[in-house]
TrEMBL record:
Pfam families: V-ATPase_H_C, V-ATPase_H_N. Belongs to the V-ATPase H subunit family. Keywords: Hydrogen ion transport, Ion transport, Transport. This is ATPase V1 complex subunit H C-terminal domain-containing protein. The lineage of its organism: Eukaryota, Metazoa, Ecdysozoa, Nematoda, Chromadorea.
Length: 449
């Protein structure tokens, strides 16, 4: 699937700054006289500035060859004034935007110097001037994706770490859209996806979604687009399940009216199932979607009568895959799903002795994760139905698990239960009383319950 984008839909702060930089009047002769730059650097930059067409600029670059790169590097490194560094980087970025094949001139010089072509620019990523940082991101992205020499190793980790940091600055960062656009291009390359995911990149993307939610749907779309690209990698699709990515984009799916955002969210959810190679991980992805009510949200979206063929196909795929999982869910899977959603109700499992005989011990799995969730509900829920069911389930856990009373006591469940004996709701008091009796009496059968 390929999603079209209108990159000119919004004028970013970065683009406006670039327009200002392009109109800057320079006097390179001053730097030549002060011997800050060599005559050869001056000759190249002035000649290149005067070239009016793409063909003319290509001719200048072919005449100067490696001298052009040396000139660019000298202008970036020998003149400390930000305005001139900005101008030089903008020329380079425009040069590569005009013809990405020109990345080869940096690669050829790097080979002569026995260094990486990226090393010419990496030092600029720690500059305080954010325009310099983000125009450098733009240049590095073009080189890394369209050049012959891919960025690897420590250099790759440094670039990805810098991009991640750029995302975490929130809406106060006027250049966040530029960082995201660079990611949209970089994540076409599989090794770049893996590098970003391995430094907890998903966390920065979800953080950016929250921090930019008042900035309009376009940046929201672009951030989720990055998530979608990442999930084409099986490792990245698996890592996504350990965080809150599904929860985050599921919330957007339920609230957003823009079709392009809905399309990219649904496509990302599809990838999280389709790209995972392990059957267990596929099931985990499906379970998370079911927990976040994706089947219900898809049913609501079906009423929208979308015309987009790809969106309809993705929705059909998701509905089919999730239906398969729902059909094979065991009663404990359903129970766990209820518990994780915090929406306990009197489903058959709660009052089935066979269920508790077979499954009571499973509340202790993963360091008593599910038992802790039940006790947390006793302490924090304001829903009388949830309190009734949670109190009942803890009583059944104690009843059917030999050391259940001790575990509940150690986790503070007994105190939480006792507090429920004083609430206003009579049903809550009733179920809390039954559970409290099971907690306090060793031979629960004597109760005749």
């Amino acid at each position: 699937m390929v999603f079209g984008e209108n990159q000119d839909l919004i004028r970013t702060h970065f683009q406006k700054e670039a327009d200002k930089v392009r109109t800057m009047k320079t006097n390179w002769g001053l730097f030549t006289k002060s011997r800050m730059i060599a005559q050869s650097d001056y000759d190249f930059i002035v000649t290149y500035e005067q070239a009016e067409t793409e063909a003319d600029r290509s001719t200048v670059l072919s005449v100067f060859k490696e001298k052009a790169v040396y000139a660019f590097v000298h202008l970036m490194s020998q003149i400390s004034k930000d305005d001139y560094v900005r101008y030089t980087l903008t020329i380079i970025d425009d040069m590569l935007r005009e013809d990405v094949g020109r990345t080869i001139i940096f690669e050829d010089v790097a080979k002569l110097l026995k260094r990486s072509p990226y090393s010419f620019f990496l030092g600029l990523l720690h500059r305080e001037d954010q325009y310099i940082v983000h125009i450098t991101f733009s240049i590095l992205t073009k080189m890394a994706v369209f050049g012959n020499m891919k960025i690897t190793g420590d250099e790759l980790d440094y670039v990805m770490g810098s991009l991640k940091e750029a995302l975490t600055r929130g809406t106060g960062n006027d250049y966040i859209a530029t960082a995201v656009r660079c990611m949209q291009t970089l994540f076409r390359v599989d090794s770049y996806r893996v590098s970003f995911v391995n430094i907890n990149g998903y966390d920065s993307l979800t953080h950016a979604l929250y921090s930019t939610r008042k900035c309009g749907f376009q940046i929201q779309y672009q951030i989720i687009f990055c998530m979608w690209l990442l999930t084409f990698n099986s490792h990245a699709a698996e890592v996504a399940l350990s965080g809150n990515l599904i929860h985050t984009i599921s919330g957007i799916l339920g609230n957003c009216q823009k079709e392009k955002v809905i399309r990219i969210v649904v496509a990302t959810l599809r990838n999280l199932i389709a790209s995972n190679e392990d059957d267990y991980m596929k099931k985990q992805a499906s379970l998370q979607m079911i927990q976040n009510r994706i089947p219900i949200k898809l049913d609501h979206l079906e009423n929208r009568k979308f015309q987009d063929v790809d969106l309809i196909d993705d929705m059909t795929f998701l509905r089919t895959e999730l239906k398969k999982v729902v059909q094979v869910l065991t009663s404990f899977d359903e129970y766990e799903n209820e518990l994780r959603l915090g929406s306990l109700h009197w489903s058959p499992a709660h009052k089935c002795e066979v269920f508790w005989t077979e499954n009571a011990h499973r509340l202790n799995d993963n360091r008593q994760e599910l038992l802790k969730l039940l006790i947390t509900m006793l302490e924090k829920s304001n829903d009388p139905l949830v309190l009734c069911v949670a109190a009942h389930d803890i009583g059944e856990f104690v009843r059917f698990y030999p050391r259940g009373k001790m575990h509940v006591d150690l986790l503070g469940g007994k105190e939480a239960m006792m507090r429920l004996l004083t609430v206003m709701d009579p049903n809550v008091r009733y179920h809390a009383l039954l559970a409290a009796q099971k907690l306090m009496i060793n031979h629960w059968k004597d109760l005749g319950l």
